[in-house]
Amino acid sequence: KQEVTQIPAALSVPEGENLVLNCSFTDSAIYNLQWFRQDPGKGLTSLLLIQSSQREQTSGRLNASLDKSSGRSTLYIAASQPGDSATYLCAVGSGNTPLVFGKGTRLSVIA
Amino acid sequence: GAVVSQHPSRVICKSGTSVKIECRSLDFQATTMFWYRQFPKQSLMLMATSNEGSKATYEQGVEKDKFLINHASLTLSTLTVTSAHPEDSSFYICSAPAGGTEAFFGQGTRLTVV
Asked: CA A44 to CA A20: how far, in whole Å?
């Protein structure tokens, strides 16, 4: 059974810092990996999708990497801003099967 | 990207009543819809999978008679929480795979049972 772990559970940083969020998964037979953002009481915003054949994806200040063989992914946020404060969720998928989510990392960026 | 529209976004109901949540795929046909539940400070947990024209499959520990799922068309899946109780208060969200590559999520429904 696939299990997804995210470290750290919570993170507080001053504005402007670069930071890394970690995600690991137990079964490397994945189809893709997605990073989401969730604001308090809100739904999910898809940030980056990495297919199993890819090693990284970039969008603006965000960069996600995938090492499928070791079961790891990282989300790099450059020059963090208070508006980046949210919970970041990592989820792995296998084709048309449901995503398996980690518990998320709660990020606070302090002005 | 594909759009999944979920309604209502927020609902408050009295204990013992039923609540229906709708998810519509607006620009694609969703033969499958996944329903998740998220308790405070927890991750999203799969509740059930609905398939158009057939019975839903439920995850272990999810009562199928309490959480009724109907997927009568390729663009609409509904989740009805029957005889809701305060412990059913949660965030419910649907998701449909589109083309087998990316999962698209509804906006979520915050259910509060008082």
From this structure: 20
